[in-house]
Amino acid sequence: MFMLSLALLQSPAAPMAFAANDDEPTDLEESDADKGGKKHKTTSTSAKKDAQVREIVRGFYAKANVGGALWVLPPFSQSISSGTLVMLGVGDDFVDSEHLSMAWEVGLAQGLHNGIDNDGDNVADGCLSGGACTEGDLRTYTLQANYEISTYVTRRVGIGARVGGGVMYSPLLMNRDYFNQNVLPMYGGQASLQGSPVPMAFGGPTIEYYTKLSHFSVGVDVDAAYYIGWSLAINASGALKYTF
């Protein structure tokens, strides 16, 4: 037995094996170290996410509106039906506080109206007193900009007002020579209202609700819009907004 022990101690592999066992951590120690490292990393990542996530986001946004438009002053109110309104726009909430926000917005709106068949009734022929007429059916394209200010009655609900202006264009949807030679004389008109840029101004209330889907909000915009040289219209639409 003494000789066997002596032979093991003199073997060159024995010291290396003992040294390796002393230097290397046990499975338990390595597992604890890994667990500790992972736990620290997970905690750090969670803290960063908590710091970055905002349930209600305001700032630069894209917005889509869908609704309707109604002419409210004669002769347009008698000769042109209510129609559809769609708009795409972008804007920015440049003031963002707990109870107040302010924003600018620019957008392109399109309206579509049909003429009303009045069986030749000249009282509702779509002509203004100055002898300028429309062809009846209308498509309108409006480039507009507005300023908005809102106050928040709750964390998610804002009520505000907006005011703005722009330029509307309504193309003539038939041959202009035919319109001038055949349609205008029928109603005693002297010129076409369509085919030229029309300045406009508008204003009205807005309501916005910030959903529980971060970055998304919905709302309603109602505007009284005066198209200079044309008529007064009421535009009302629902809005879907995504804030980046």
List its traits.
10 strands; alpha+beta; single chain; two-stranded parallel ribbon
Structural description of this entry:
With 244 residues, the protein is of the alpha+beta class. 25% of the residues lie in helices and 45% in strands. It has 5 helices and 10 strands, in the order αααβαβββββαββββ. It has helices spanning 2-10, 13-23, 27-52, 76-79, 176-187, and strands at 60-71, 83-96, 100-113, 132-133, 138-152, 157-169, 191-192, 198-210, 216-227, 232-243. The strands form 2 sheets. It has an 8-stranded antiparallel β-barrel. Strands 4-7 form a two-stranded parallel ribbon. Strand 5 (138-152) and strand 6 form a beta hairpin. The longest helix has 26 residues, at 27-52. The chain is elongated.
Element pattern in H and E = HHHEHEEEEEHEEEE
Low-confidence stretches: 1-6, 13-35, 37-43
Tell me how many strands there are.
10
Q: How much of the residues is beta strand, in percent?
A: 35-45%
Main sheet makeup: 8 strands, antiparallel, barrel
Shape estimate: elongated
Structural class: alpha+beta
In the sheet with the most strands, the strands line up as: 1-2-3-5-6-8-9-10
Count of helical regions: 5
What is the gyration radius calculated from CA atoms?
Answer: 36 Å
* Gap between N and C termini: 81 Å
Report the average pLDDT across residues: 81
Helix content: 25-40%
Give the secondary structure arrangement, pairings included.
Elements: H1 2-10, H2 13-23, H3 27-52, E1 60-71, H4 76-79, E2 83-96, E3 100-113, E4 132-133, E5 138-152, E6 157-169, H5 176-187, E7 191-192, E8 198-210, E9 216-227, E10 232-243
Parallel strand pairs: 4-7
Antiparallel strand pairs: 1-2, 1-10, 2-3, 3-5, 5-6, 6-8, 8-9, 9-10
